[in-house]
């Protein structure tokens, strides 16, 4: 680690493969002693000499972002209701999350809140409810089964038969599910004799892709005159369709109808064979045959929906009761207000109803919801279950502004409804305010009602102006120009999602951001500590948006008291046979030990360790990153340094002394459930932690004794382990031959690139490391071939770029993976993960510019024949950097030194070429070029520009 004497001290990230290396103090040259640039005689030939002006940059960026949208032309809303992250249009302001959904002719926005977590029986994020807009008039082709009395042979939990006839079927919905066994049946009492010509069965898989093996295979469609004796009408055999849609041979008249299901699954997988359950999402009946234009699946009305990431809004064209409507929906950036304008493009008035409802679309919830009307305002409220932990309450309140007429709202159960009329060409505005969340709030419903009561049509204009301005400033924080639409589509959408999900002062986004649409989020929707919780933030530092990571540190620090208790009292559970020999008491004096899953407010979700002790280190990597990129001494003193010290205390106790090797050794698990000596991610992140602690103790002028101990520990850590795979050296998961468990391989090709996490996020090996070490890393990337591995997306592309992987090949792999995995709303989807995929923005930055060992390198992994540029990316040392590459030549480099200090840039121009180095006022500034590195001593807040001098 390099310690600079001037101003705020700077890190110099250093290759530490065989223990710590001594690093010489960086060269610092003042203006008077440097070789001064001569005034330029003219503008250099080639590309631009400086970054574009702010207005010019915004105009180009605005045009680019306008073309990066999510687009839908059907009303299936696939993936809107999800146990992971939704695939439909999303809005967010770091606190409230809004997910677009609905059905044909029905528009719904599901509303969640980042701090609305159930504490009981275990921590889990929950949806609050939603806002639904639809016509008050049902289509003429009415489903005769809708609302009928449904009974069934058996029921699995809360998935009762009435759920198959409630009309709520949509993407992600579960209807009736039986208990195990066959045959099973669901019967309907229509209330009176009806004529039926067609029946539709929407199997579970139609709403929940991935459950194809549980699609109904064989059944009998039956009728009865008394509900007891049944007559077969038609058999369905060998079905594999998600939706069974049949016209009867002849219309029939009956009151009672039954599906008698003899084969409820496809019998194609062990699960479908051993655990047969009937799964019917919706059972529908119609009086008109499909062949004669019967209902149930009408010809789609003109529909189009667009997710606009430029200014965070959703536009929708939809038909309700024959009237074409245009909707525009946005969420305020600085308050919890959701706005939808509804404009009629019809020729006559249309009567609509907006429903404000609480609860979840999934059955079996133990968290109650209520609705009501207060001060003429419709509201709905949801409260989490009581228990030993906190109770949370959140509420929605809605008003209709500008309608031709709006009736007094009414409430029933958990839904409050407001009916209003919209004249041709008129616009009404639906305003919903969201309140509550957190631990044990009071007066939540009243707060929501009071907030929406202050909203006026005139007041919404400045609110929208502030929101548009917020997003403009967000986009201008930094931007890239790649000339590659696939990469740019991923990149800017990923920035949109993390910017929507995380804001300072709010609860950090967990696995699926802030978009929760069910009560059953996978993995408790928590903060997974073995990288998933940190992954979304990998790219925020270099994108010049480090403040987005601040909520993460609060979640980690809130857990520290419990993590310290676990280090003292619960250590034995990590691996009893190992711990009991080394720590007979079952713990150590101090330190921090995290389980794999935590929630907010110091809570625990997944109380397992999986034989890993690196969870504290993954968190430490992000504390280190924030300090390294921002040089924020207050953050270092108050947050990072105390946490990193506790991590060091843990590993000071945990490390063993390997006497023959005269170095420390570490036993732990690189993958969940594995165990081996000198796990490479653990070693890498511990080196990063100790290096930052040593530097921080100098900056803060404290802990000289501890500093010497940390340095000794760092000096005696082993090199990153390597092994030989198919005749060549690669980076290993652990020291070769030490892996224990069911899979004892030293490297897992095709799996998560855990063995490369010492490169990123640990920053032990980088672009300025010895070529031989980087060559091993490049070969390891090839051997792993993990480009499409679902956990690797936020890591592998960055890891490859950091060691100089061939640019064209890296881009090809990156774009191919994006194309394969991108969802309709432009997120990278894999069925299990969510917001973490934003972390691969760091790979894009690393292809354009990197800083390692205190030396900045421009366009290190970018094809020389492809023009590219970037503006205001943040580099370690708090150097805000812009540069452009055109026709294979770097046109300029501009750096604003936010914290001052020595700036070193690898010279991107030929040796001997005269350079022009100027400050922000255009004055020549001193510099030195030595060993191919340009060195300038900067002052805090000043800007410096480098470019080739004009020919004379």
TrEMBL record:
Residues 132-288 form the F5/8 type C domain. InterPro entries: 6-hairpin_glycosidase_sf (IPR008928), 6hp_glycosidase-like_sf (IPR012341), FA58C (IPR000421), Galactose-bd-like_sf (IPR008979), GH95_cat (IPR054363), Glyco_hydro_b (IPR013780). Pfam families: F5_F8_type_C, Glyco_hydro_95_cat. Signal peptide: none annotated. This is Discoidin domain-containing protein. It comes from Actinacidiphila acididurans. The lineage of its organism: Bacteria, Bacillati, Actinomycetota, Actinomycetes, Kitasatosporales.
């Amino acid at each position: 680690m390099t310690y600079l004497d001037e101003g705020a001290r700077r890190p110099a990230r250093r290759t530490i493969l065989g223990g710590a290396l001594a690093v010489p103090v960086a060269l610092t040259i003042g203006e008077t002693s440097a070789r001064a640039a001569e005034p330029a005689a003219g503008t250099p030939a080639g590309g631009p000499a400086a970054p574009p002006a702010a207005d010019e940059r915004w105009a180009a960026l605005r045009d680019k972002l306008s073309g990066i949208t999510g687009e839908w032309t059907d009303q299936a809303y696939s993936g809107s209701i999800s146990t992971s992250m939704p695939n439909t249009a999303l809005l967010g302001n770091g606190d409230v999350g809004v997910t677009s959904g609905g059905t044909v002719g029905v528009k719904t926005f599901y509303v969640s809140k980042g701090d609305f977590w159930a504490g009981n029986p275990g921590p889990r994020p929950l949806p609050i409810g939603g806002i639904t807009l639809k016509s008050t008039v049902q289509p003429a082709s009415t489903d005769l089964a809708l609302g009928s009395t449904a009974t069934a042979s058996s029921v699995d939990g809360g998935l009762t038969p009435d759920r198959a006839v409630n009309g709520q079927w949509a993407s992600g919905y579960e209807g009736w599910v039986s208990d195990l066994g066959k045959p099973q049946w669901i019967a309907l009492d229509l209330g009176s004799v009806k004529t039926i010509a067609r029946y539709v069965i929407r199997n579970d898989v139609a709403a929940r892709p991935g459950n194809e093996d549980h699609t109904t295979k064989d059944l009998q469609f039956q009728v009865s005159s008394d509900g007891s004796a049944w007559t077969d009408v038609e058999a369905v055999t060998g079905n594999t369709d998600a939706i069974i849609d049949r016209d009867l041979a002849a219309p029939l008249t009956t009151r009672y109808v039954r599906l008698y299901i003899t084969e409820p699954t496809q019998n194609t997988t062990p699960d479908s064979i051993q655990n047969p359950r009937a799964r019917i999402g919706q059972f529908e009946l119609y009086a008109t045959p499909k062949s004669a234009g019967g209902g149930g699946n009408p010809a789609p009305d003109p529909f189009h929906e667009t997710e606009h990431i430029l200014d965070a809004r959703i536009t929708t064209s939809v038909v309700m009761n024959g009237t074409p409507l245009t909707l525009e929906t946005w969420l305020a950036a600085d308050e919890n207000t959701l706005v939808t304008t509804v404009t009629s493009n019809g020729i006559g008035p249309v009567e609509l109803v907006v429903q404000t409802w609480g609860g979840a679309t999934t059955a079996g919830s133990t968290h109650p919801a209520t609705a009501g009307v207060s001060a003429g305002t419709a509201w709905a409220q949801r409260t989490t279950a009581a228990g030993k932990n906190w109770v949370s309450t959140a509420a929605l309140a809605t008003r209709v502004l500008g309608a031709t007429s709006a009736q007094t709202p009414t409430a029933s159960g958990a839904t409050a409804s407001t009916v209003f009329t919209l004249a041709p060409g008129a616009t009404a505005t639906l305003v919903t305010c969201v309140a509550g969340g957190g631990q044990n709030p009071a007066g939540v419903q009243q707060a929501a009602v009071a907030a929406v009561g202050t909203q006026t049509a005139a007041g919404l204009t400045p609110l929208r102006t502030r929101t548009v301005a917020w997003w403009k400033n967000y986009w201008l924080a930094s931007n890239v120009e790649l000339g590659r639409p696939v990469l740019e589509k991923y990149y800017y959408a990923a920035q949109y999602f993390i910017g929507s999900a995380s804001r300072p002062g709010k609860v950090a986004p967990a696995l699926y951001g802030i978009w929760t649409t069910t009560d059953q989020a996978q993995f408790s929707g928590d903060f997974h500590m073995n990288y998933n919780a940190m992954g979304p933030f990998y790219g925020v530092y270099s994108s010049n948006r480090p403040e987005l990571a601040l909520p993460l540190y609060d979640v980690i620090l809130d857990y520290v008291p419990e993590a310290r208790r676990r280090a003292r009292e619960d250590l034995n559970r990590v691996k009893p046979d190992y711990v009991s020999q080394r720590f007979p008491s079952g713990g150590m004096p101090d330190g921090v030990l995290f389980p794999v899953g935590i929630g907010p407010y110091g809570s625990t979700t997944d109380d397992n360790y999986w034989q890993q002790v690196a969870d504290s280190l993954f968190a430490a990597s992000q504390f280190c990153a924030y300090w390294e990129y921002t040089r924020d001494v207050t953050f270092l003193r108050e947050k990072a340094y105390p946490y990193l010290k506790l991590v060091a205390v843990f590993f000071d106790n945990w490390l063993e002394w390997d006497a023959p090797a005269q170095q420390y050794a570490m036993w732990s698990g690189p993958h969940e459930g594995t165990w081996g000596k000198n796990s490479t991610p653990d070693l890498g992140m511990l080196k990063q932690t100790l290096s930052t602690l040593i530097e921080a103790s100098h900056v803060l002028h404290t802990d000289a004794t501890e500093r010497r101990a940390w340095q000794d520990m760092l000096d005696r850590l082993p090199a990153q382990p390597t092994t030989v795979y198919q005749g060549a050296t690669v980076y290993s998961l652990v020291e070769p031959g030490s892996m224990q468990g069911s899979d004892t391989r030293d490297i897992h090709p095709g799996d998560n690139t855990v063995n490369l996490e010492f490169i990123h996020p640990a920053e032990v090996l980088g672009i300025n490391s010895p070529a031989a070490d980087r060559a091993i890393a490049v070969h390891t990337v090839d051997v792993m071939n993990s480009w499409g591995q679902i956990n690797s997306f936020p890591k592998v592309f960055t890891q490859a770029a950091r060691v100089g992987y061939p640019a064209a090949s890296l881009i090809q792999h990156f774009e191919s993976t994006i194309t394969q995995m991108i969802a309709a709303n432009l997120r990278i989807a894999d069925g299990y993960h969510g917001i973490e995929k934003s972390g691969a923005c760091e790979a894009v930055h690393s292809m354009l510019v990197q800083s390692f060992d205190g030396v900045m390198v421009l366009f290190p992994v970018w094809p020389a024949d492809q023009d590219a540029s970037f503006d205001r990316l943040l580099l370690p040392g708090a150097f805000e950097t812009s540069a452009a590459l055109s026709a294979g030549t770097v046109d300029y480099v501009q750096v604003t030194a936010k914290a001052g200090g020595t700036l070193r840039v690898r010279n991107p121009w030929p040796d001997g070429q005269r350079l022009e180095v100027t400050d922000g006022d255009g004055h020549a500034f001193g510099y030195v070029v030595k060993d191919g590195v340009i060195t300038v001593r900067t002052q805090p807040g000043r800007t410096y520009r480098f470019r080739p001098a004009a020919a004379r």
